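seq as requested:
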Amino acid sequence: MRPGETPSKSSEKLAEMIHKAISDCEITSTEYDAIMKIANEDQHVDRQEQNLLNQLQSLMANGTVKRVKG
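struct tokens:
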């Protein structure tokens, strides 16, 4: 994030949902879909949102966060 730039409201909600998935070590399809919807709801993925999404994707790719049914 650039100096003076404030996070969007969607960034805060996105961070909350991603941190929950990380702490649970799993994410349901419903949660994943909700995360993607939040990230795209304002038609702009800002730097903080992109970093959060990259972190989640990385953790899913290495198996730290597993995608489960639900």
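The mean pLDDT is 88.
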